[in-house]
Amino acid sequence: MVSIRVNGQARSFDGDTSMPLMWYLRDELGLTGTKFGCGVALCGACTVHLDGEAVRACAIAMSDVAGKSVVTIEGLDPKGEHPVQVAWRNVSVPQCGYCQAGQIMQAAALLAKTPAPTDKQIDEAMYGNICRCGCYQRIHVAVRNASKGA
Amino acid sequence: MTYHRNQHDVAIANVSRRNLLKGVAGTGAFVLAAQFPAIRSAMAYATGADGMPHGVVTNPHVFVSIAKDGIVTIVAARAEMGNGAARTSLPMIVADELDADWTRVRVMQSPGDEETYGNQDTDGSRSVRHFIQPMRQVGAGARKMLEIAAAKQWGVDPKDVVARFHEIVHTPSGRKLGYGDVAEAAAALPVPAPDTLALKKPGDFRYIGKGDVTIVDLFDITTGKATYGQDVVLPGMLFAVIARSPVVGGKVASHDAGAAMKVPGVVKVVAIDPTPAPAAFAPLAGVAVIAKNTWAALKGRDALKITWDDGPNASFDSAAYKAHLEEAVRKPGKLERNEGDVDAALASAAKVVTAEYYSPHLAHATMEPLAATARMSGGKWEIWTSVQSPGGARDDIAKRLGVDQKSVILHNMLLGGGFGRKSKWDFAIEAVLLSKSMDGAPVKVVWTREDDIQHDFYHTVTAERLEAGVDKDNKVVAWRHRSAAPSFMANFKPDPKYPGEIELGMGFVDTPFNVPNVRLESGEAQSHVRVGWFRSVNNVAHAWAIQSFVAEVAHALGRDPKDMLLELIGPPRIVLAAEKATTPWWDYGEPHDVYPIDTARLRRVAELAAEKAGWGRQLPKGHGLGIAAHRSFVTYVATVVEVAVDDKGNISVPRVDTAIDCGFFVNPERIRSQIEGAAVMGLSLAKYGEITLKNGRVTQSNFNDFQVVRHDEAPVVTNTYIVENGIEVPASGVGEPGMPPFAPALCNAIFAATGKRIRRLPIGDQLA
User: Fold this and answer.
1) Per the CB < 8 Å rule, is A19 touching B679?
2) Which residue in chain A is spatially nearest to B228 when comparing CA positions?
3) Is B516 helix (H, G, I), strand (E, B) or coil?
4) Is the pLDDT at B664 greater than 70, yes or no?
């Protein structure tokens, strides 16, 4: 039995604890904002916050999240108005949109720790989040706009 | 289990036509219900839309409904895969002609049903090109009906009544009614004939051409609510993954499901039969594992013991095939276009420049791996998936099931990228087969990234050989181009050997150069993998080879590459040469008189991109500029890339300047996003893109070995310059034409920076 908090809510899971957190969120809780992209922590589409850290939910087993707190895109802000989400909308970042929840969660974690990142810090933090449509230029601008250094 | 949120989303996002009528009627709204024949006389010019299956529908009843509270619902019938055309630009065109307040417009996704909605095949950069005129007609028709209804209610002359921004105004008296107030009365009116419609003057557009309407799914995308095929959840749903034949044409010789069935959560193991070639979009042979969640299905698949019969492609090796293709272009091939006498002109040339180019297979690698969910109840099949051609998929699946089309409902979700991969609906057929094996229980088929990379319909591999003969005055007088690439027609007919007219039309027989002796030939090439179409298709290889070669000729003659390019394009004229092609010239399905090859427009984008990029400017050490210009999808695009190459051979792209002439434009903001994205995708394929095969098996499997460009290496700035045109210039494609010029502009820039000419893609470590 694994007990965790997801978006502030206490949850318990008594299934196969080798199941990655991503499949638990998607298949068991129906929290499909956390996307399946590669399954092996190469693309970042499944990025969530685990005790405040950006992690790839596809590469963390349920056995490793016991007692921890998970925030998904659905729980980032009750009204969807986290500064990163607002910045994203202001520059119309998304094309297909599939990777964007992961991108936003990654950017939110960066800015929580580094409120005024340099361009290089943004590059390094966002490196692991692939966007096949190629929205990187706007992602970069949105992260900068959401930062204190903007 | 908490399925309710998703169920709700699915219900809202995908309402079948029948539900739409019922649902809207239930809220006291009206739905225009009479039939309205698609008379095209109100359209200013013909397009290839008429040649597409089921053509276009201009009936406002089909696309517009207005509730009593004034909320306007517009149906989006095409697939939304990220360019914004289906769910934003087309509904916005309707809303503009309807003069609706966009904040009071809702967009509803239609199911797959071309008889009702017209062609839904979202491919070939056709959405705005084919639907700007019909959608204007839809909006103008609905507006006129509202005006007539209000005039009747007031007992006034309709000529004194005008619908304006969600209100109908009686101009002499200033009286007003809301759209919702007369919606019901308007529903009872006959639909106005197309030739009585007053389309807006372009100066009166509120949204078209402005670029200040954001995509309708923006909020949902940024909050995780946007629902894609992978995200569909139904009550009691089962999850499946499939071990597919690693070799195309292979089948299961034997399999042992014992260990897989012991994995907790695994429900069933099902074999999928092979389909003989040409298999179109039929699933590959394999063994499916159906389970209570995706993870159990994956573990079950790992536990399968399968012996494969690899079939006729068992020894296929892409390295050997490369040599075979290169041989094919070193000898005369099938004639595709001939003017003058190339052999004589080359023999008498003062100088001959020759170069060969090779570009490999590519995977689409959409961010959303493929997925489909199917269930059957009460004699009706329902499918939830993300496909580019929802109508075509629905009809094909009905045919395979041997049931009436109307008993198959295909709900099309948002597509997490498409790029041509989701034009093929093999995964939707898989879901239906597996649901059928479970007596119609809902089953979702999930493709992993490895499945996606290894079982794609790949972008074709191409070898090209170009020869230019130059006379004593340094004029190019001979142009021989041979190209060999396996055809995607192999999906549909046995062993085509040579490209079809669609493939030839994509940057080969339509070469617009002003050279007196031209000979174009295809080399023979057999298909051993599933070849599909990838964003801009054969244009990728042809534009890369041709535009690289232009710069090579320039170098050989000591000319500036931009000047050489403009000289080869020649004076402003309509190019008729392609009409003399041996195989009938396919111009993206468009009538040649409406969308001719106009070199003035190609010149203009080349000159504009060069000017904006500061062509010839001083650059830091290790930097270079390259240019390329290409017409594709009846749109003209030129790109100038600035590259920086460091002493280890690493490349970066500080700046891209792209000019696009896509005729009259609807949504410049989304055109910019497409051009920005094309630069990234172009850089990905140039730098990394390659699928190789050994023993018939794809070597790559995930983003570690099929790399794509990441944030830190993406072009820092892509500037987009959109040529302004009046509405009389037919709208043309946007989603694809940004792609072809990027790779050659990049390679030309690399040559300018380093003196190293790239003749084989990807660039990989060739600069190290």
Assistant:
1) no
2) A98
3) coil
4) yes
Which of chain B's residues have a Cβ under 8 Å away from the Cβ of A38?
449, 702-703
- Report CB contact under 8 Å: B416, A139: no
Contacts of B78 (CB under 8 A, 6+ apart): B85, B86, B90, B120, B122, B127, B131
**ipTM of model over 0.90:** yes
Same fold, B4-223 and B318-363+457-754: yes
- According to the model, what pLDDT value does residue B37 have? 39
CA B458 to chain centre: 14
pLDDT, tens digit, 9 for 90 and up, residues B32-65: 333 333 444 568 999 999 999 999 999 898 999 9
Q: What is the CA radius of gyration of chain B?
A: 27
Fold of A83-146: DNA polymerase; domain 1 (1.10.150)
Q: What does the pLDDT read at residue B188?
A: 82
Residue ranges, comma separated, of all CATH 1.10.150.120 domains in chain A are: 83-146
Mean pLDDT, residues B722-748: 98
* Contact (CB, 8 A) for A116 and A147: yes
Q: Do B230 and A32 touch (CB under 8 A)?
A: yes
The answer regarding whether domain A2-75 maps to CATH 3.40.190.150 reads no
Q: CB–CB of A94 and B678 under 8 A?
A: no
Q: Residue B446 above 60 pLDDT?
A: yes
Residue B473: how many other CB atoms lie within 10 Å: 7
B8, B222, B684, B710, best to mutate vs chain A, most A CBs in 10 Å: B222
pLDDT of residue B22: 27
Chain A residue nearest residue B681, CA to CA: A134
User: Which residue does chain A place closest to B213, by CA atoms?
Assistant: A92
Cα–Cα dist B448/B425, whole Å: 16
Of B723, B147, B112, B650, which Cα lies nearest the Cα of B396? B112
pLDDT in tens, B306-351: 999 999 999 999 999 999 999 999 999 999 999 999 999 999 999 9
pLDDT tens across B380-392, in order? 999 999 999 999 9
Q: Which CATH class is domain B4-223?
A: alpha beta
CA distance A49 to chain B (A): 14
Rounded Cα gap, residues B565 and B448, in angstroms: 44
User: Strands across the sheet with B64-66, in order?
Assistant: B30-31, B64-66, B72-76, B105-109
Helix (H, G, I), strand (E, B) or coil at B499: coil
Nearest to A99 among B83, B231, B367 (CB): B367
Number of H helices, E strands in chain A: 5, 5
pLDDT band for B578, please (50, 70, 90 cuts).
Answer: confident
Q: Indicate which of B234, B367, B639 best probes the interface with A, i.e. most A CBs within 10 Å of its own CB.
A: B367
Nearest CA in chain A to B715: A137
pLDDT at position B584, please?
A: 86
Residue A78: cis peptide before it, omega within 30 degrees of 0: no
Each domain of chain B, given as residue ranges in start order, spans 4-223, 229-312+370-446, 318-363+457-754
Q: Which residue of A has its CA nearest to B215?
A: A92
CATH of B229-312+370-446 given 3.30.230.70, 3.30.1330.120, 3.30.365.10, 1.20.1260.10: 3.30.365.10
Say which CATH architecture domain B318-363+457-754 belongs to.
2-Layer Sandwich (3.30)
Candidates A119, A137, A140, partner chain B, best to mutate (most B CBs within 10 A): A137
A-B C-beta contacts closer than 8 Å? 198
Nearest CA distance, B621 vs chain A (angstrom): 22
pLDDT at B18 over 80: no
CB contact under 8 A, B239 and A27: yes
Which residues of B fall within a CB distance of 8 Å from A85?
Answer: 222-223
pLDDT in tens, B377-433: 999 999 999 999 999 999 999 999 999 999 999 999 999 999 999 999 999 999 999
